[in-house]
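dude i think i finally got it to work??
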Amino acid sequence: MAEVTCLGILVADLVGKPVDKYPDRGKLVLVDQLELHSGGCASSTAVALAKIGISAGVIGKVGCDGLGDFMISVLERNGVDARGVVRDSTVGTSGTMVMVHSDGERSFIHYIGANARLTQDDVNFDLLKDTKVLHVAGSFLMPGLDGEPTANVLKKAQERGIITTLDTAWDSKGRWMSLLQPCLQYVDYAVPSIEEARMVTGKQDPADVAKILMDHGVKVVALKMGEEGCYIRSADQEIRIPKYNVDAVDALGAGDCFAAGFLTGIVKGWDLEKTGRFANAVGAMCVMALGATTGIRSLEETLEFMETH
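look at this
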């Protein structure tokens, strides 16, 4: 199917900017920009990988509606293998109203939709026969797959010699470690945000956060630290890599694009420091344009960006 297969959430993002206050009840406010973008962890990571030059595929679920058509068309237009995307006629495609503040921060109104119906039975392992990496993208937002079902998929992937990686989303229901714990023993690389990882582990310091995740079986932890860059920990390395200084336009998709950069390093066989620097660069390029993957460029252009910034 692809060098990297992203299993997870697919979301249509309606992005408005700037939104610095909500309209009063029954009233209207204007925005300077309003655009429809593909989003969701699996879609954004896969599209970013494809734009970098890494062959990517997606396994997920959308509705039989206009937004579902849009999501699949975006994947295919970007060269992502969408054969693993299942259509469900009983539910709508997941969508998010994304309100981008003037400083680039975002607020969200989200409909979970078809992502709630994604189960381990939807994972077609025949499509994974040539995959090097299976990336679970959006844990905590897939109630039909989270927990033991995800652990089952990851275990089966590892048994087939596939490298496993996992990224999280915010768990609004507060289950955190109780839901994620069964999966961690089957995760080769975890790439969560520091905020989510702190909630999972109950620790604050990145070193303590990483240790807890590794104690549960994760081999390498790469924490997305926002303004502080990233923190990477393995059995024999501890690396802190600062961010690239750029003018942020929109932080939408930055974490997914960091993941895509990190996955690129895994596929290329780079050491952890180069992988982390490249991941930071992909995340930085993401925030320089409106939309989750608009700012992502090729491998060569990203390496040049690293040299000039």
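The chain has one domain: 4-19+32-308.
im so relieved honestly
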